């Protein structure tokens, strides 16, 4: 199957050099270990590998023994680090519309990040997912992504705004002091989602707009860039599977309907990239299962719901067939 390298703007590592030095690391050495160079970060719009950035954050957290490294990096970010997207967001008449623009254009700044808005009565969940092609940890990347989302929302909604909750799928660190200080509340770890829950009324309230002419130019630029994006069918369908799995069944028919094509077209496009829907579904399930079992303390029944299985016994049977051992044996092997 042909591999497509997913990229992210080098601006995602704004502040990395200073933070790495602050926690006792040599930033140039850490960059070299993942195939990056300091000059790769000079131009904030330069595309760099998302896999390299993800590995850099995880390596830095381990080397410095700083469990919240990704979150600390998010603390050094501002809405303006999103480039032209920030102009469009600041011009939006409501925070909801600003976030919808973020969801629309996120792929231009980070091709591996999936941001979605979900309505639940009087609350709204802004969900974040990291799309990867392996079973490696994403803890630091997801904490940075949610942290940047929070900083962006604070700039849009004002310094007095507070979310209802902030959620992470992984287990809590030994000390969550940094998380509580940054978000202004206790964080919900071992959650079913990664993201921020807020009041719907906060997002619906009208707010003063900024320079509408600047935002118009920025939107035209972004739309033109978006029209030139040519994602592989595999990458697009992977995004849909990640989004649909926690809601129960995820079949080829359901994914095809979501994409506005018939099932045969979906299978034909995947076959052209030397893969299949069943293979992709099993791969995504395997990646999600391995990260959840390694990084969280969720029960087997909770994992079954997250991965689209009707019962925990169905998950256990699938896991043993897919990984060649039981969940408990696999977890022990990772420690």
Can you give keywords for this protein?
alpha+beta; Arc Repressor Mutant, subunit A; 4-stranded antiparallel sheet; two-stranded antiparallel ribbon; 9% strand
Note down, in words, how this protein is organized.
The chain is 54% helix and 9% strand. With 335 residues, the chain is of the alpha+beta class. It folds into two domains: 7-204, Alpha-Beta Complex (H-NOX domain), CATH 3.90.1520; 233-334, Arc Repressor Mutant, subunit A. The strands form two sheets. Strands 3-4-6-5 form a four-stranded antiparallel sheet, sandwiched between helices. Strand 3 and strand 4 (123-130) form a beta hairpin. It is globular and about 55 Å long.
Low-confidence parts: none
What does the main sheet amount to?
A: 4 strands, antiparallel
Instruction: Report the portion of residues in β strands.
Output: 5-15%
Mean pLDDT: 88
Radius of gyration based on Cα positions: 20 Å
CATH class of the largest domain: Alpha Beta
Task: Give the beta-strand count.
Answer: 6
* Strand order in the largest sheet: 3-4-6-5
Pattern of helices and strands: EHHEHHHHEEHEHEHHHHHHHHH
N- to C-terminal distance:
32 Å
Q: Which class of secondary structure composition applies to the elements? A: alpha+beta
**Total individual domains:** 2
The dominant shape is globular
Helical amount among residues, as a percent range? 40-55%
CATH architect. name of the largest domain: Alpha-Beta Complex
Number of helices: 17
Could you name the CATH topology of the largest domain? H-NOX domain
């Amino acid at each position: 199957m042909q591999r497509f390298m997913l990229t992210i703007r080098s601006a995602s590592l704004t502040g990395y050099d200073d933070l790495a030095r602050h926690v006792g690391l040599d930033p140039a050495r850490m960059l070299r270990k993942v195939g990056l160079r300091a000059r790769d970060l000079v131009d904030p719009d330069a595309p760099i590998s998302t896999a390299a950035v993800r590995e850099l954050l995880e390596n830095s957290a381990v080397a410095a023994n700083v469990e919240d490294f990704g979150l600390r990096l998010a603390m050094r970010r501002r809405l303006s680090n999103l480039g032209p997207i920030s102009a469009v967001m600041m011009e939006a008449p409501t925070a909801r519309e600003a976030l919808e623009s973020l969801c629309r254009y996120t792929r231009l700044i980070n091709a591996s990040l999936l941001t979605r808005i979900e309505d639940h009565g009087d609350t709204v969940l802004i969900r974040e997912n990291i799309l990867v092609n392996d079973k490696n940890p994403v803890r630091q990347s997801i904490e940075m992504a949610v942290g940047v989302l929070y900083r962006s929302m604070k700039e849009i909604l004002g310094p007095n705004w507070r979310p209802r909750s902030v959620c992470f799928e992984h287990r809590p660190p030994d000390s969550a002091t940094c998380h509580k200080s940054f978000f202004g509340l206790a964080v919900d770890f071992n959650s079913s989602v990664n993201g921020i829950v807020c009041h719907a009324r906060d997002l619906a309230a009208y707010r003063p707009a900024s320079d509408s002419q600047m935002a118009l130019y920025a939107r035209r630029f972004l739309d033109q860039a978006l029209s030139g994006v040519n994602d592989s069918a595999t990458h697009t369908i992977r995004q849909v599977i990640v989004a649909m799995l926690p809601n129960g069944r995820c079949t080829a028919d359901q994914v095809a309907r979501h994409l506005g094509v018939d099932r045969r077209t979906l299978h034909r496009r995947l076959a052209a990239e030397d893969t299949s829907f069943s293979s992709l579904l099993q791969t995504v399930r395997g990646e999600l299962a391995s990260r959840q079992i390694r990084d969280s303390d969720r029960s087997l029944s909770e994992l079954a719901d997250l991965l689209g299985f009707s019962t925990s016994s169905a998950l256990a049977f699938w896991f043993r067939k897919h990984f060649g051992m039981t969940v408990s044996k696999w977890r022990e092997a990772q420690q």
